[in-house]
Amino acid sequence: MKIIPIKFHSYSSHENKSQKRNANFNDKSSFCKKFTLSNFQAPNFTSLKTTSENEHKYLGTAFYRDLNTLINVSDLIRQEFPNGTDIMDFACSNGEEAISLYSLINDKNNCKYKIHCYDTSDKAIKLAKLNVHSIFNGTPDEFLIDKKPLNEIYKNIARCFNELMEEVTPPNFEINDKDFIDLRRKEDDFIEKYFKVKDEYFSNFEFKKGDIRDILNIQPEKKVGAVFFRNAFYHITNNHTFERVYDKKTLDKILETNKEEVIQDVVDKVYEKLLPGGFFVLGDDEKEHIYQADKYTPNDEIYFDDITDEYLRIKSPLLKALKKDGKFKPVLSSKCKTMAMGDFTVYTVWQKVEK
After folding, report:
1. Residues 198, 200, 206, CA angle at the centre, nearest 5°?
2. Which residues contact residue 13 at a Cβ distance below 8 angstroms, ignoring those fewer than 6 apart?
3. Quick one: 54 exposed, middle or buried, by C-beta within 10 A (0-12, 13-18, 19+)?
4. What is the SS3 assignment for 47-80?
5. Buried residues in 228-266 as b, exposed as e (16+ CB within 10 A)
6. Could you give the CA distance from residue 267 to residue 324 in angstroms, rounded to a whole number?
7. Which helix (H) or strand (E) holds 133?
8. Which of 30, 133, 250, 328 could form a disulfide with 350 if both were Cys (CB 3.0 to 4.6 A apart)?
9. Hey, which residues does 51 pair with through a beta bridge?
10. Tens digits of per-residue pLDDT, 13-67?
């Protein structure tokens, strides 16, 4: 698949839809006023596949999310490291992203590529090690169990998946949100299947508890060809863009967390961990690329979006950190889709530039 970089869309273009308001931002009571009436609690890790307040809206993990990025980055890794390399996947959940990548990068078990998977959740790592995965209709990966004719891309992906995976009987434990899945099972057209990584492939995955902020202390003797940290920056930056309400504890974290400092620290550590020519792979979620202002944000970099009632940063601290000192260059773009600001292009794969 041909890689066509697309020019990054600047957030400052949204400024004409908003009123600049700097004077009241540092007044915490003003910043929090619209939210503190709610007793809403920030969600915890309760399941891998669940639903939101909207009926049947899918949230959680899935195989082959952002397929365009996974297809292209697997080609890039093979081209840059034809003799193999280690890969680190942070915020790996139950391993379905790593499995998706492995099926694309190496669908023949010659063990050139090993994926080391880390998550801060004990539950996620436990489920990953159990090696049982569910697919049901209404999710992004339903094409893997769909009996309808598939297009050629999906046919090829399904072939890669079936080389790596095998269908198994339902386990005696639940890996999805029980209330949600029980509701879905009542539907006449509901389809649900379970899979595991075949035994001969499972040794190519390693699952451990770990935090990307500690990346230099994880296997310190080893550098890697790629680091994946997709759609997870909001966890460590306390960035909850466009969510309607927060509890006071969450609001305090939003305001008190120096997002730019946290991101710069991670980007610098990833750069040091990567081999020359290595890749840093990001997600295309809006919370990865649009950031709420915090008390450390310069006043001239804050704007108030009067449509969403959000104090936002004009410049993405993630983009700023990646471009700093020319350490990384963008090599692959994707589309970030938002309800509040429309769709715009972001770079999801960055390559280390050796200095």
Report:
1. 85
2. none
3. exposed
4. CCEEECCCCCCEEECCCCCCHHHHHHHHHHHHHH
5. bbbbbbbebbbbbbbbeebeeebbebbbebebbebbbeb
6. 10
7. strand 133-136
8. 328
9. 58
10. 333 343 344 435 555 434 433 332 222 232 333 345 554 444 444 446 789 988 9
